[in-house]
Automatic annotation (TrEMBL), chain A:
Molecular function in Gene Ontology: carbohydrate binding
Compartments, as annotated in UniProt: Cell envelope
Organism: Candidatus Carbonibacillus altaicus
Domain of life: Bacteria
Keywords assigned: Signal
Lineage, opening ranks: Bacteria, Bacillati, Bacillota, Bacilli, Bacillales
Protein name: Ribose ABC transport system, periplasmic ribose-binding protein RbsB
UniProtKB/TrEMBL annotation, chain B:
CDD domains (alphabetical): TM_PBP1_transp_AraH_like
Membrane topology: Multi-pass membrane protein
Keyword Transmembrane helix: yes
Membrane-traversing stretches: 12-28, 40-59, 65-83, 88-109, 115-135, 156-177, 208-230, 242-275
InterPro entries: ABC_transp_permease
Taxonomic classification: Bacteria, Bacillati, Bacillota, Bacilli, Bacillales
Organism: Candidatus Carbonibacillus altaicus
Cellular compartments annotated: Cell membrane
Keyword terms, alphabetized: Cell membrane, Membrane, Transmembrane, Transmembrane helix
Name the record gives this protein: Ribose ABC transport system, permease protein RbsC
GO CC terms in record: plasma membrane
GO MF term list: transmembrane transporter activity
Length: 326, 310
């Protein structure tokens, strides 16, 4: 019996510590978070009593994972914008688990946040949670990955079509508007592969001097990028540039090109992964198209503010990309 | 004195749960609302159902690490069938049978193969995960019929359906464990397997049955989770076995078998759910949440040691 009491007290202590620890770390991120101390019993009344002076809006942000630099940047961008607007941002990490994410969103709904920013782990699995938010009349924004259902006010994501165009323009410029190109496609049917390819081909098709001599899927995979490129190198004696729908395939293609001893082929990737950026610095990869997760996070919170003011926003907000070159 | 033990064992976890709930309510009044409690129990249902089955296995002194993978496998197959327009009830029955057979495989290997349950279920955990990834090609299965989703989102008289299903399953297993010869034999094997065998109990049969119950529990959870997520995820159920084991141990069941109750497991599952939900409500960053959950499990293990020392 005594041990049970000790155990329960230990749990209580741990809970208390965690609650304090949590608020400390939030304090670090959010200097303006006056009412953030939800570990005091009066905190929820605080939220209501401060309505008069400065109604603090609370945004719930359910993020797919914080175990990946891209999403940490996304969170940091959102936090930055929230601090500027003096909003409170509640971030819950789904740890790439769709089931946990649905629970997280339900918990945010119970907290009655003013708006939900959701970065889904999976487009289909998030629908239940979005519908629950709709029922609770909490507006929902999706970021980076979209949702298959439920009412979403706006989707904020990288403009993959523009990124594909950007890669094509860069190749065109490097080749002085003339050359034979190879396109390594992502997993067929994915929106990233479709949009990146569409942007790229739009520019290439407009220019009769540029021809795509080979176009094959390599499923966003480095090993497949390599083997597909090996086959293309066998078949095509003349190649001036390669555009891959992601960096993994670009790096795989690069391996194949270097192994075959072919010189002067420009390779352009997409995503600006650390490996790819290093390859760009070493001069092996010509360029990679970078998403801007910090900007994406900032825009998510800024559009949240616009929505909370009752203004209309477009259903899709593209986030600019940028080209990383040497 | 000795026969007073059970009352501590029974009430200890419940007192712990109530105390945590009271503290959370003081810290965050929104915790104790009907809608949040329904929300919380609905989230708990998936782990609770798996943990009910796990209780039977652990009572015999075994362990089942494969439940998360069986869940993913059954979820994928049921979703695959539904996406191919197979009748809802047929698909669910196939899913349950598949769960039972998966559990039976574990049971045969443990009982007839005389292998350590930890190793057997570690292996089948990997096998079922691999089969799931192969079947789904690593992608979620979507396009499920709307009426199937009701299993995860529907309500009966205002009570979410997953909660109703959990309650029914609990009652069923409670009767099996406490009011059948089979139930008594489960305890007997966990208490002293050799003695149980010598007294004429077919221990192999009982062991195979408990792993089957565990497999069926995973299958029921798989169906609820798939409905809730509107899709079968190839990575569904990762680490669910650990949450289930944690719930069983938190509920006061001895990891060495022979001692424990199903009610305790329910309380244990609720405790984990209350922690998950409560820490979210308190805005504790997820990294700290994991620390807290880990510490709570540690405490439970310490309690388990106390029991084996008694």
């Amino acid at each position: 019996m005594k041990r049970w009491v000790v155990a329960v007290l230990a749990v209580v202590l741990v809970l208390g510590l965690a609650a304090c620890g949590g608020n400390q770390s939030q304090g670090r991120n959010n200097a303006n978070d006056h009412t953030g101390a939800s570990n005091s019993p009066a905190s929820s009344e605080d939220n209501q009593s401060t309505v008069g002076q400065n109604e603090e809006k609370v945004l719930g942000f359910s993020i797919s994972t914080l175990n990946n630099p891209f999403f940490v940047d996304l969170r940091d961008g959102a936090q930055k914008a929230a601090d500027k607007l003096e909003y409170k941002l509640v971030v819950l990490d789904a740890q790439d688990d769709s089931a946990k994410q649905v629970g997280d969103v339900e918990d945010l709904i119970q907290q009655k946040v003013d708006l939900l920013i959701i970065n889904p782990t999976d487009s289909a699995a998030i629908v239940t949670a979005i519908e629950a938010a709709n029922q609770a009349n909490i507006p929902v924004i999706t970021v980076d990955r979209g949702a298959d259902g439920g009412e979403v006010i706006t989707h904020i994501a990288s403009d993959n079509v523009a990124g594909g165009k950007m890669a094509a323009e860069y190749i065109k410029e490097k080749l002085n508007g003339k050359g034979k190109l190879v396109e390594l496609e992502g997993i067929p049917g994915t929106s990233a592969a479709r949009d990146r390819g569409a942007g790229f081909n739009e520019v290439i098709k407009a220019d009769p001097e540029l021809t795509v001599v080979a176009k094959q899927p390599a499923d966003f995979d480095r090993a497949k990028g390599m083997s597909v490129m090996e086959n293309i190198l066998q078949a095509q004696s003349e190649i001036d540039a390669v555009f891959a729908h992601n960096d993994e395939m670009a790096l795989g293609a690069l391996e194949a090109i270097e192994a075959a001893g072919r010189k002067g082929i420009i390779v352009v990737g997409f995503d600006a992964t650390p490996d790819a950026v290093q390859a760009v610095e070493e001069g092996r990869l010509a360029a990679t198209v970078a998403q801007q997760p910090v900007l994406m996070g900032e825009m998510a919170v800024e559009y949240a503010a616009t929505i909370l003011k009752g203004e209309k926003v477009e259903s899709y907000i593209p986030v600019e990309l940028k080209l990383v070159t040497q | 004195m000795t026969w007073k033990w059970p009352s501590f064992q029974r009430t200890g976890p419940l007192l712990g749960l109530l105390l945590i709930a009271v503290i959370l309510t003081i810290l965050e009044p929104k915790f104790l609302t009907v809608s949040n409690l329904f929300n919380l129990i609905r989230q708990v249902s998936i782990n609770a159902i798996i943990a009910f089955g796990m209780t039977f296995v652990i009572l015999t002194g075994g362990i089942d690490l494969s439940v998360g993978s069986i869940l993913a496998f059954v979820g994928a197959i049921v979703a695959g069938l539904l996406a191919a327009d197979v009748n809802l009830f047929v698909a669910i029955i196939i899913g349950l049978v598949l769960g039972a057979l998966s559990g039976l495989l574990n049971g045969i290997l443990v009982a007839k193969g005389r292998l350590a349950p930890f190793i057997v279920t570690l292996a089948t955990m990997t096998i079922f995960r691999g089969l799931t990834l192969a079947y789904t090609e690593g992608r979620p299965i979507t396009g499920l019929p709307a009426h199937f989703r009701l299993i995860g989102t529907g309500e009966i008289a205002g009570v979410p359906l997953p909660i109703v299903l959990t309650a029914f399953f609990f009652l069923l297993l409670y009767l099996v464990l406490n009011h059948t010869i089979f139930g008594r034999r489960v305890y007997a094997i966990g208490g002293n397997e050799e003695a149980a065998r010598l007294s004429g109990i077919n221990t192999d049969r009982i062991k195979m049955l408990v792993y089957m119950i565990s497999g069926v529990s995973a299958a029921i959870s798989a169906i609820i989770l798939t409905a809730r997520l509107n899709s079968a995820q190839p990575t569904a159920g990762l680490t669910f076995e650990l949450d289930a084991i944690a719930a069983v141990v938190l509920g006061g069941t001895s990891l060495s078998g022979g001692y424990g109750t199903l009610g305790g497991t329910l309380v244990g599952a609720l405790m984990i759910g209350v922690l998950n939900n409560g820490l979210n409500m308190l805005n504790v960053p997820s990294f700290y949440q994991q620390v807290v959950k880990g510490l709570v499990i540690l405490i439970a293990v310490l309690l388990d040691r106390r029991k084996s020392n008694k």
